[in-house]
Every structure is written in structure tokens, then in C-alpha cells.
Amino acid sequence: MFDRKPVDRVPLWCGASAEFMQKACRFLDVPDNEAVLRRFGDDFRRVFSRYNGPLVHGNVSIFGVERAGIGYGQPVSHPLADATIDQIDSYNWPDPDSFDVSHIRSDALSYGGEYAILGGEWSPFFHDAIDLLGTENMMIMMYEEPEKVHLVLDYIVDFYYELSRRVLEAAQGAIDIFFIGNDFGSQTGPLMGPALFDEFFAMHLKRLADLGHHYGAKVQLHCCGSFTALIPSMIKAGIDALQGLQPITPDMQPDALKSRFGTQILFNGCIDSIKYLIDGTPALAEQKVKEVLATMLPDCAYILSPSHDYLLEETPVENVLAMYDAARSYNIDYSHRRVL
């Protein structure tokens, strides 16, 4: 699919919270997450590095940011908000040596070549910079103190780059997709214009994309919200696929995405996680799957999935089953260049 060759069925993707997977196990009466993914027909599996560094007390990120609230929470403070250049340089940045990658290849090979394997670090450098600097503060600093923002981003991406390099090196070709995530969109539009994106963030995406390509992997970016104005820069940076794609946000409808970028990048998503899957019904989920597939296939590189890589616990399992079952039974008619 990444190479835009015909596929014999609709490729399927599932990302879900631990709470949703626990509920799905109970609903389906299966023993584990792997059984759930097999029932859904997920064509992908993911391998992770393992933290073996100093014990961290409480909900503190690897960048030393204390968090509170539901789940991963929100930052309690922003430790570099008022930092000088020297203080940024001397900050206690995370060490790639705190992570074990020795198991990566065996974990990837354990699936016997049955699935496409995702790996590398999530690398949410935009979010980590926000945690360290504060959202509004960072936006102002991008104009008034750009050298500090660049320095913070350099340290963050240096860490993710080196750890991902070790993961990909340890995999020895067993990782198919380098999967990273940064949410540059809001529910109404991109969080910044293309000029600021290109000045501060595009080069870091390119650096990570170049790393993945060096090891023969495709590079997929998870990005939430509406961010159409930034997609040309993402393509230029070397991103091969975009995952998420919320059709209820401006300019992110499947037909609009396909018409503008369908020949340049793979799309993964478009089945809205809230309106169709949480608030909808099995019949609505099935209907939306058919509508999206009629738009995106067969002449667009596309993977069907929810519009977020994290199905929430409140998502009815019945709706998710209806989504995947509708896609699994969908026939792609290449002889007439249309879908049935």
C-alpha cells in the first residue's frame, strides 16, 4: 500500500487505549489484546524500547515535567519557561542509555512476517517543547526569543533521534514503519501557519524521516485536528503517511484530502472516533466506512482506521466491530477502476 500497488483487501489499522482493550477483551470473551486485534483484522503490530533508567517517582515525564490529571495528565509547571541559554544547556536532558533496545528484533520477528511492524520512538517533540516552555509562552518566544526555542527543540530531537537510531539499528530491517506523533492541528485549524512551521518544526520532521528512510522504513506521522495548510511541508520533509485525519474538522474530509494530496502521501484514518464511533451506532459506522472507501479506493494509498490512534474506553465495541467488519467485506474492483 505504501508503494501504491494494488491490494487484495482494505488495509486495517487499530490503535486503542488500555481501557478500551480491556473492555473489548471482556466483550469478545477473548484472553488478550492480540486476540482482539486479530478479531478486528489489524494488519499492523508495534514494538517498543524499554525504559531501564533511574526510578522516577510520581507522574513525571522523561523530560522532568511533573504532570497531574486524568491519564497522562497535563503539566503542573514548565521548567524551562524562563530559562537562559546556559540553563537550557545544563538542563537534565534524558539519556538514550536509559532505554533497552536489545529485544527489538526478536519482538518484531515474533509475528512471523504476518504483519507490518511499527517501531522507533513516538518522538512528540512539539508536545515536549510545550511542556517545557508552556504553550502561549513558546508561541511568543518563537517571535521574541527564537534561539531558545530552537535550542530546546534541538535537545529534544537529538534524544529521540539517537534512541530511534538505536531501535532501528537493533531491528536490522525488521521494522517496516517508523511511527512518530505530533499534533500540529486544532479542531478549527493548524496551531501555526506554514512559515512558523517551516522555521521551527519541519526540519526536525525531515531529520527523523531521513533516519527512517536510511534504515529502509516508511515514515508515518500521527497528527490530530485540522492541519491541511501544513501537509505540503510534511510531504517535503519526507513523511510517507499521515495517520489520524479527523473528517469533522475543517478541510480534512476524505475527498478534499485525496484531491489535493492523494498522489503524494498515504492516508490512514478518516473514520471519526467521536461522531461516528463514540456517539454513533453500528449502522452509522458501517455507512461511513462504505462512504470513505468509495472515495479513497482504489486509486489512493489508504489504510482504514479511526481518526485517532487511541480508541477511548467510552467507545462502544459494537461500533468498532461494525467498522472493521464492513471494511473486511469490502471488495475493490480494479477492473473498472471503481469500487463495489
Identify the notable features of this structure and list them briefly.
TIM Barrel, globular, alpha/beta, 42% helix, 13% strand, 340 residues, 14 helices, single chain, two-stranded antiparallel ribbon, seven-stranded parallel beta sheet
Structural features, described:
The structure is a single chain. This protein is an alpha/beta fold and 340 residues long. It has a domain at 18-53 and 101-122 and 175-339: TIM Barrel, CATH 3.20.20.210. It is built from 14 helices and 13 strands. The protein has a seven-stranded parallel beta sheet with strand order 1-6-7-8-9-10-11. The mean pLDDT is 95.
Write the layout of secondary structure elements.
Elements: H1 18-28, H2 33-40, E1 44-46, E2 50-51, E3 67-68, E4 74-75, H3 85-89, E5 99-100, H4 104-109, E6 116-119, H5 125-133, H6 135-144, H7 146-171, E7 177-181, H8 194-200, H9 202-214, E8 218-223, H10 231-237, E9 241-244, H11 254-261, E10 266-271, H12 273-278, H13 282-296, E11 302-306, H14 317-328, E12 332-333, E13 338-339
Parallel strand pairs: 1-6, 6-7, 7-8, 8-9, 9-10, 10-11
Antiparallel strand pairs: 2-5, 3-4, 12-13
Helix pairs in contact: 5-7, 6-7, 7-9, 9-10, 13-14
Structural class computed from helices and strand pairing: alpha/beta
Number of helices: 14
Following the backbone from N to C, one meets helices and strands in this order, namely HHEEEEHEHEHHHEHHEHEHEHHEHEE
Q: Tell me the CATH architecture of the domain at 18-53 and 101-122 and 175-339.
A: Alpha-Beta Barrel
